[in-house]
Specification:
Elements: H1 2-11, H2 14-18, E1 23-30, H3 45-56, E2 61-70, H4 75-92, E3 96-105, H5 107-112, E4 117-120, E5 125-127, H6 139-145, H7 169-193, H8 202-205, E6 210-212, H9 213-219, E7 224-225, H10 228-236, E8 241-244, H11 251-255, H12 270-289
């Protein structure tokens, strides 16, 4: 076997042995961001950490390119993923480039901050630097149905924002305060990672608005326009090869909930599995539809 390998290497052109083609590891970060089970294809650190590590371990890797397509979600998971990428980039001295595809909004934009440089398509949707909470109020519905809601708690605010009770001003004040603190956290990360590059006013950039890639360049939220392959070949040469990092897939792993798709718990009765899947799909669809997709 060793003789065959040596013979194969001997037939390779000498320049390729002395100067192998540079490799760019492509790490896809796709879908809504959240803990397992919230979305049918939730993106979180537990699911992508091995892929992140694999990207930085590719042989002869010169850079890691993030292919981002996410409408956002959990600020915590977004930050954990971003910080893990940054830590490996600094540890291994390998640059990171982020590419917004259809959407890099909210937590999806936070992911792009892992890049030393950020690029977008001119029609990409970028931004939405804000915090949102949404729900429904069913108190009037159960009143019409003649249903009596009974809640017993230990702790003054344990039933805060109960959707089956009328909205309370004090509850809204609490959740708004929480949102403002998370928003401040988000703004600090943007200012830290885009230091010296932001061109728009904070009032506009941090308003929750989102823009096309072309407009995001003008605001300094991204560094330029371009697709992943073109930009990387401009930086590392026409011989650049791309290694796309993809988690293992398989029937057994799917049953165990290891792949990036939601699998209901086996213990749930069939009557509950379908509604759970429908709700997860609707919630995920709502995240994308906010951006017209």
């Amino acid at each position: 076997m060793l003789k065959k390998i040596r013979a194969m290497l001997a037939r390779l052109p000498l320049p390729y042995l002395k100067d192998p083609a540079p490799v760019v590891a492509v790490l896809p970060l796709e879908g809504p961001i959240g803990v397992s089970g919230r979305f049918s294809s939730s993106l979180n650190l537990a699911k992508v950490e091995k892929d992140i590590e694999a990207a930085f371990d590719v042989y002869n890797v010169k850079a890691v390119a993030l292919a981002i397509n996410s409408p956002g979600g959990s600020p915590v998971q977004s930050d954990l993923i971003m910080r893990r990428i940054r830590a490996l980039s600094e540890e291994k001295n390998i640059p990171v480039f982020a590419f917004a595809e259809d959407v890099a909004a909210s937590g999806g934009y936070l992911l792009s901050l892992a890049g030393d440089e950020i690029y977008a398509h001119r029609a990409s949707i970028v931004g939405s630097i804000g915090v949102i909470s949404a729900g429904f109020g069913f108190d009037k519905a159960i009143e019409k149905l003649g249903v009596d809601r009974r809640v017993y708690t230990a702790g003054e605010h344990k039933s805060i924002l109960d959707p089956f009770q009328p909205e309370q001003e004090k509850d809204v004040k609490i959740i708004k305060g929480l949102q403002n603190r998370i928003h401040d956290f988000f703004k600090e990360i943007v200012k830290e990672r885009r230091e010296g590059k932001l061109k728009g006013t904070q009032k506009v950039m941090f308003s929750g608005l989102f823009w096309t890639g072309e407009e995001a360049v003008k605001l300094g939220l991204v560094d330029g326009l371009g697709d992943l392959r073109t930009v990387m070949r401009e930086k590392y040469g026409k011989r650049t090869r791309f290694k796309r990092i993809q988690g293992e897939k398989g029937f057994l792993k799917g049953l165990l909930g290891i792949v990036r798709r939601y699998v209901p718990q086996a213990s749930l009765p069939q009557s509950r599995k379908l509604p759970q899947e429908i709700l997860a799909a609707l919630e995920e669809r709502a995240e994308w539809s906010r951006y017209g997709l």
